[in-house]
Design a protein that fits this description.
Strand order of the largest sheet: 1-2-3-4-6-8-11
Order of helices and strands: EEEHEEHEEHEEHHEHEHHHH
Oligomer: single chain
Number of strands: 11
Strand content: 15-25%
Number of helices: 10
Radius of gyration: 19 Å
Low-confidence stretches: none
Bound molecules: ligand T3D
Largest sheet: 7 strands, mixed
Helix content: 40-55%
Length: 267
């Protein structure tokens, strides 16, 4: 069964345990307005509280994934005070990124076209990034005098190393999807017409897996960069203790011993 909810700037659909969120301002390459930040945030809240949702796909409508901040909202007339871009990050983008990363289920970005500025970093904050061959990633911020945000300066060096990350940030060069794959920035790059199916199949598979266990895996990896090995060993112990108490762990072991396919409930 599928349930579709209407938002002003995104499409939101739940089917087979998968929530699909489609950024939907195709004429402006799905660039972010305040309304789109609110809509995406509300969609994530819905996902957080719906136990039927066990995986998420984030993608864009039309030929783009997301071109970052809608720059029409940043035009300053002579004599006007500049916008407080720090406040927008503090109150809108940063809570959105924190919410996305904290989701206790796997999130797949299906990058269907250009991902620029905040749009690139939105994608890179997803757990698994799959791009269509025509997609490209641009740290466009430097071209308008800004710095990479939405966690770009954190996630990029961790994915591709300091040199390549800083180079992309300083030059604003376009990184084609195939090169992003070669650099280890994304999980996979597929033919454009196979993107939705590939991401959907993966999400539907993940939605049948031990959701609590997957959430603990995410937590361990998300906390890893800030931890020493000793702290991480302690965290693994704590998370493994909780994973070991789940019904799905019991089912996984039982199914293995009974030589049958496990039926995980996500609990
Ligand atoms: O609060 C704060 O402001 C701080 C937070 C900042 C976060 C950020 O994301 S800052 C970075 C903002 N994004 C950019 O600087 C990217 C701007 N866009 C581009 O450089 C190019 O559009 C692309 C490289 C992404 C794609 O180029 P191309 O040639 O494929 O498409 P296009 O023709 O440039 O764009 C198509 C349409 O989308 C066009 O509209 P039109 O002329 O047909 O009516 C274009 O104006 C519009 N569009 C694309 N990006 C944006 C946009 N409109 C508003 N804002 C955009 N970011």
């Amino acid at each position: 069964m599928s349930a579709t909810t209407a938002f002003e700037t995104i499409l939101f659909d739940i089917a087979e345990g998968v929530a699909t969120v489609t950024l939907n301002r195709p004429d402006k390459l799905n660039s972010f307005t305040a309304q789109m930040r609110r809509d995406l945030s509300d969609a994530l809240k819905r996902i957080e509280t719906d136990p039927a949702v066990r995986a998420m796909v984030l993608t864009g409508a039309g030929r783009g994934f997301c071109a970052g901040q809608d720059l029409n909202d940043r035009a300053v007339k002579p004599g006007d005070a500049p916008p407080d871009t720090g406040a927008t990050l503090d109150k809108e983008y940063n809570p959105l990124i924190r919410r996305l990363r904290a989701l206790e289920l796997p999130v797949i970005a299906a990058v269907n076209g250009v991902a620029a500025g905040a749009g690139a970093n939105l994608a890179l904050n997803c757990d698994i990034v799959i791009a269509g061959k025509s997609a490209k990633f641009i740290q466009a911020f430097c071209k308008i005098g800004l710095i990479p945000d939405c966690g770009g300066t954190w996630v990029l060096p961790r994915l591709i190393g300091h040199q390549r990350a800083l180079g992309l940030a300083l030059l604003g060069d376009t990184l084609p999807a195939e090169k992003a794959l070669e650099w280890g920035m994304i999980w996979d790059c597929v033919e454009d017409d196979a993107l939705a199916r590939t991401a959907g199949d993966m999400a539907r598979h993940l939605a049948t897996q031990p959701t609590r266990g997957l959430a603990y895996i995410k937590q361990a990896f998300n906390q890893s960069p800030d931890n020493t090995l000793n702290q991480q060993l302690d965290l693994e112990r704590d998370l493994q203790r909780m994973a070991g108490k789940t019904e799905d762990f019991r089912e996984g072991v039982t199914a293995f011993l009974e030589k049958r396919k496990p039926a995980f409930k996500g609990a």
